[in-house]
Write a structure and sequence with these properties.
This protein is α+β, with helices and mostly antiparallel strands. The chain has helices at residues 2-9, 77-86, 134-145, 182-187, 196-210, 215-229, and strands at residues 91-93, 99-101, 109-110, 116-120, 161-168, 171-176. Strand 1 and strand 2 form a beta hairpin.
Length: 244
């Protein structure tokens, strides 16, 4: 039953986004404005580095595919890239690509053997105003360690995450199968936290809508979609630009 539930969760879509505006890293001082024109730069020279202040503006980032969901329950590579801009994880990367605390209040404590990691959460809220709790962190990482993990493959943790436990409302304990350095550099920054309440509600709605469905009709619909979108084996499809 547990495997079935995670498998179904993997195909849900939900808006369980974190806009962790509370308790995250304090922004640096904004760049001071000046009326003076920018200094010219000689060809072949590099601009002088800034003092680390944060400016404002707009960036354009190309993603090589459409988005599928806004939840960790199912996260292909394009979705994971987009979600990285709007979700929040226990750690984030700073300007030098060094992992620093984000939803974690400080760097997580590690046992001497490198197997047990204890993380304390800072104060943060989901986009709907619900507080981010240890239960949400456990829920998210349980999905990542499930045999039915449907996340971006690099975020699936079954091979080295033994367990994740809620110590109290703001403390989470991870137990690894053995010392694993990338846990701090990849796993903690790479998995945005989902709201257990939002994803579970979406799961319940999904199951409720499926009750009474005719298996034969579902199979027929699936076969029709496959026939319309997949070329028969041995045949080639040629796509040409629309002359219009």
């Amino acid at each position: 039953m547990r495997r079935t539930k995670w498998n179904a969760l993997a195909f849900l879509f939900s808006g369980a986004l974190i806009l962790a505006a509370c308790g995250t890293q304090t922004p640096g001082d904004s760049v001071e404005e000046s009326d003076a024109p920018p200094a010219s730069q000689e060809p072949g020279t590099s601009a002088a580095p800034t003092d680390g202040g944060q400016g404002t503006g707009t960036i354009t980032y190309a993603i090589d595919g459409g988005l599928t969901t806004l939840s960790n329950a199912l996260s292909d590579v394009p979705t994971a890239e987009a979600f990285g801009f709007i979700g929040a994880a226990l750690y984030q990367y700073d300007a030098t690509l060094t992992p620093v605390p984000d939803l974690a209040a400080d760097l997580c404590e590690t046992s001497e053997d490198g197997i047990v990691w204890t993380c304390t959460l800072t104060e943060a809220k989901f986009h709907n105003g619900d507080p981010v709790t240890a239960a949400d962190v456990v829920f998210t990482y349980e999905i990542a360690k499930s045999p039915n993990c449907r996340l971006n493959p690099s975020a699936c943790l079954e091979t080295f995450l033994e367990s994740v436990t809620e110590v109290d409302e703001t403390t989470v304990e991870f137990t690894l199968t053995g010392p694993y350095a990338p846990f701090a550099t990849a796993s903690l920054p790479g998995l945005s936290i989902d709201s257990e309440a939002v994803v579970t509600a979406a799961y319940d709605e999904f199951v409720g809508a499926a009750e009474g469905a005719d298996p034969a009709e579902v199979t027929a619909a699936s076969d029709a979609i496959t026939a319309a979108t997949v070329a028969p084996e041995g045949e080639e499809e040629t796509f040409e630009a629309d002359p219009a």
